Amino acid sequence: MRKLISTLTALPLLAAIFIGSLAAPCQAATPGTLAFPATLGGGDSLTVMDIILGHGDLSVFAALLDTANLDEVLIGAGPFTVFAPVNMAVDQLDPMLIISLVLDPASLAGVLGYHISESLLMSVDMTDGQSLGTLTDDELVLSVGDASIMVNNYATIVEADLVGSNGVVHVIDQVLFPEQSVDDLSAATFAAYPNPIQNELWIASTSGQTLQIHDATGRLIESINMPISGGRTLISTQDWAPGVVLISDDKGHVIRLVND
């Protein structure tokens, strides 16, 4: 059995799926207040994806964009308006929903795409009741008050007008969901990241269970006992042969990964 590097428990499940922070710290507005910076330093050269990656409180959103391959979209020509939820907003979601989304990139892209508009809209140009189209063809509705701006009468903009070369990012305090819900996603009990695997693999679970890891020939590579209370496990894969890796639980759920 390969060396088990570490097992971490009592962590939010999303943090268990994604490996630490992907970005350098950036000072964020105090929740519930609306900040209006004119630009984020070097805005003429930074894309909206660069801004998201450079904001310390958007690291989970950045990881999700990468999983859904929407990071490639946000370095494009644009223009884009992105409503980016803070880490805590994602962390407050049902862990089973997060696992299901991570295991279904198309559905994940649908949720994240609902936060992105192919247009440029600064906060000063927002009007009460205004509708804004998104990548999913669903619309967002803005509510503009004297001291705050809300999206879908649910999420509040807590940091506005982070301007990049191809658009603008507005930081919000909640995750937005289109009317077409993700309720029909099949329940999952574990997730693994990244795919393809490069030197190490994170496995996250909502509860204690034993997971089997096999190669494409059916040979058992490793058997992992997950923490009883749920959490994540980090495994070194440096000794694994390149190729397909299958992770399964005792209920028949299987994740297919590729080891580089």
Provide an overview of this structure.
The chain is α+β, with helices and mostly antiparallel strands and 260 residues long. The protein folds into 2 domains: 4-12 and 189-259, Sandwich (Immunoglobulin-like); 31-172, Roll (FAS1 domain), CATH 2.30.180.10. 16% of the residues lie in helices and 33% in strands. The protein has 6 helices and 15 strands. A 7-stranded mixed beta sheet has the order 3-2-8-7-6-5-4. A 4-stranded antiparallel beta sheet has the order 1-13-10-9. Strand 14 and strand 15 form a beta hairpin. The chain starts with a strand and ends with a strand.
Unreliable segments of 5+ consecutive residues: 1-43, 180-186
The fold-level CATH name of the largest domain is: FAS1 domain
Give, in order, the helices and strands: EHHHEHHHEEEEEEEEEEEEE
Q: How many structural domains are formed by the residues?
A: 2
- Would you identify the CATH H-level superfamily of the largest domain? FAS1 domain
Strands across the major sheet, in which order? 3-2-8-7-6-5-4
End-to-end Cα distance, whole Å, is 19 Å
The first-level CATH class name of the largest domain: Mainly Beta
Strand count, sense and barrel status of the largest sheet are: 7 strands, mixed
Radius of gyration: 20 Å
For the record, the CATH architecture of the largest domain stands as Roll
Structural class: alpha+beta
Alpha plus pi helix count: 6
Tell me the strand percentage band: 25-35%
Range of helix content: 10-25%
Roughly what is the average pLDDT, rounded to an integer? Answer: 77
Number of strands: 15
Instruction: Based on Cα principal axes, name the global outline.
Output: elongated
